[in-house]
Amino acid sequence: MVAIIFLLGGCTKLSWTTAGKIVPPVGNVCPLEGKWVVIQDLSSSRHSGADDQIWIGNTAQFTRGAAMLGNYVWNQPSYKIKKVNSTDYLMTKYLMLSSSLVPNNTVIEVTTVSTSENFLGEFIRVDDSKLIAFAENKVLLLKRVSDQVDSSLTAADLDGVNKNQKGKPATSGILLGLKTPGNDGNAYQTFWIAASNGKLHPLLMEKDIFFPRSSGFWFLQVHNVSTGSIKEDELSARDVSTKISGIETKTMGIIQHDIPGKVHQRIIDYVGNDYVAIENKVDGVDQLQVLPVDKISAQEGVKISDLLENSGSVVYNNARAQAIQSLRNKGISSTDNDDREENFGLLRKNGHWYLQGRINYEDGNTPRYLDYNVNLIPPAKMVSYDTLCLSWQNIKDRVPDAMDAFTSPNRDIALIKTKAKLYVYGITNDQLGSEPLTKLNLKEGEAVVMAEWATGSYVDNWEKAFAANGAQKYDLTSP
Fold this sequence. Notes:
This protein is mainly β. It has helices at 2-11, 86-92, 246-256, 304-307, 310-328, 392-398, 457-468; strands at 22-23, 34-41, 59-62, 66-69, 72-75, 78-85, 107-114, 119-127, 130-135, 138-146, 171-180, 187-196, 199-200, 204-207, 209-213, 216-227, 230-239, 263-271, 275-282, 285-292, 344-349, 352-363, 366-373, 404-407, 413-417, 421-428, 431-432, 438-441, 447-455, 472-473. 15% of the residues lie in helices and 42% in strands. It has a 10-stranded antiparallel β-sheet with strand order 1-6-7-8-9-10-2-3-4-5. Strands 11, 12, 13, 14, 29 and 30 form a 6-stranded antiparallel β-sheet that branches. The termini are far apart.
């Protein structure tokens, strides 16, 4: 009986021992073996100003000796399988898929495909005939059309593959928005940082915030408008092809607002494709607000229930109720009434954006506020990409004073921010390079408010568009 128990125990599969773990393919067999065709693009294009490649009808092929996606081939790919919770995984991708494709809260297999130099993508196995690919900054649905790859892709014939189909080098670029505090208010600027195959492109810089939208590239600016004793920060957002004179902008700001206070500061905390998170400071009262880019001059912000599903709104209100209770436990009962669910924004911490709520209250006659965490990943409507492919511990081991970090979708470059520096590192095999590719000096209190990534052919398009709209080469010797 004892022997039987041990034998049966050795055959038992414990679910908790594999969930979230990376395991090699059984018997060194390619887990994606075969030929696949793209039948649907599950993502909406977030990039503009570039020729968008049509993926439907393209093929993908995988074998032990090579991987092919579209017109590109990579030799000797590595396949790693991890088992994860489907809902948690898709949340990190800021994506909602039909439960018929990926059931909620189930254990799914995700296969990561990479080479020594490039990250190709991640693939969810829906069933034996369908895959969901996260590759080329797209989400694609693939259908298996053959269990075998083309003969030209077999290990024995790799030398005969057309030279034009060699795997392209990893190319990534980022539009990085920075906020710099000053005596006369905050200043904003945008940096362009890009690298191809581990080699850095020239750094470009432009004042104000230059950012991509589905309709093209836009500028976001903050204007200091004074009318007698009234001072106001006026936000304006426009397509780069639209030219508005300074006089028109100031006049627009004065007409659109009836300011009850004497000083109204609008401080940008985050810029996305369609939404901007700001802090409103009016005569000592600091409130958070999220504004749609298309209605940047609106007085009222976006309700959190408009961004989140009903369950998300419940989480927000529960978190707010707990924070209010903590104030009442301290004897504070005079708090704001956020019936419209507008007093929230985004906080940057340890390589990710987090939803943050705020409660305004009075301590005696002094206005104060309490910020609290909302334990939800920001919706894809607000943040389209926020994945950190390196562990925070790995980053801190290399840069002990790191305060923030960003990694590209291609997993080829990383930006690591400290209090005084911004380091740019290459990434190889999920490890930071031995030395940074470059480093930028940061001013005291400088903070990141935007991080928009481009990969592949978009890098060249974004770089050209940025330069065409006034960006200049940045002098790394600048203080």
